[in-house]
Amino acid sequence: MKKTYLTITCLLFVLFFISSAFVPSKSPSLAGGEEKFIPKTEVAPKLLSNACSRNRSSDASITHVMLHFCSNAAKKPENPYNLKDILNIFETYRVSAHYIIDREGIIHHLVNENRAAHHAGRGHLAHEGENHHNDLNGRSIGIEMMAIGTQTEMSKFISTEKYQKINKNDVGFTEAQYKSLARLLKDIESRHADVSHDRKHIVGHDEYAPSRRSDPGSLFDWNKIGLTLN
């Protein structure tokens, strides 16, 4: 029975992640190679297959950056941040973000910016009109941070018993992550004129899909990247 519960819990976690991230593409191809899509800050290439993303619309403009947290805590609460494990989940279920920042602050480049990563899914931002429902994948850059939220925020994904197995040092975000995120945001904003350094353009997944998502959550300190919580 315990094994069955574990299997169901892990499956629910994965299905929840997929439903949150993927919106079918209707966009035509966009020619790659434009300088504005190439990061100037130091990144470690770990490109996912194109099955995990799609072409952006030929007239698409990057308008937002969406922040997320991720881990493999549902399966390995004692070792939740193995990069290979996380990327295998992305590849298996064809979800993605453009970048993932590990606990040491290394920025791993997963999807080229001229492609739309499967990270935002269905939802909308409160300050935008109905014509922008369910479309943020196509006009945003997704950044994952290896992090775990509060027990309440993680309750949709893992049981209380499993959450208690997580090392307290693995909960929340690291200073190295904040520094790297600030550097990456500055780079993105310098290359995409429509992305301003404010809370209308730098958003959390929990703002876009509050009924389904809780990341980056209450443990994320917006002040550390020069912004404030709304």
Automatic annotation (TrEMBL):
Keyword Signal: yes
Keywords from the named record: Cell wall biogenesis/degradation, Hydrolase, Signal
N-acetylmuramoyl-L-alanine amidase domain boundaries: 53-217
Gene Ontology BP terms: cell wall organization; peptidoglycan catabolic process; peptidoglycan turnover
Matches recorded under Pfam families: Amidase_2
Catalytic activity: Hydrolyzes the link between N-acetylmuramoyl residues and L-amino acid residues in certain cell-wall glycopeptides
EC number(s) reported in the record: 3.5.1.28
MF (Gene Ontology): N-acetylmuramoyl-L-alanine amidase activity
InterPro entries listed in its UniProt record: Amidase/PGRP_sf (IPR036505), Amidase_domain (IPR002502), NAMLAA_amidase_2 (IPR051206)
Top-level class of the enzyme under EC nomenclature: hydrolase
PANTHER family reported in the protein's UniProt record: N-ACETYLMURAMOYL-L-ALANINE AMIDASE AMID
Protein name according to UniProt: N-acetylmuramoyl-L-alanine amidase
